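User: Could you check the structure of this?
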Amino acid sequence: MATCKVTFLPANVTVEVDPDDLPQRSEGEPGSLLDIALHNAVEIQHACGGNGVCGTCMVFIEAGMENLSETTEDELDTLQRRPDNATNSRLACQAVVKGDVTVRVPE
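Assistant: Sure, the predicted structure tokens are below.
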């Protein structure tokens, strides 16, 4: 399969990943934004170890939302507990990459 590009802002780090060659690490869903970030030295907080329950890995999708896995009910429940939640919010540990995406990591 073709590689896809994942860009992490504000670090302005772009990495190419092959969705067939995942997981890269063992935190979050295999092939998730968290998995890819940690493998490429991009820090995203994840207090629960990537289990999708704490919400500390919430990120904002700037482009490519359609290139991520569907949001589950459990992920939506966790996101709704965050006061800074927005329509483009996802949990980095649950959002599995399927194509090009640009993500903003809160500072």
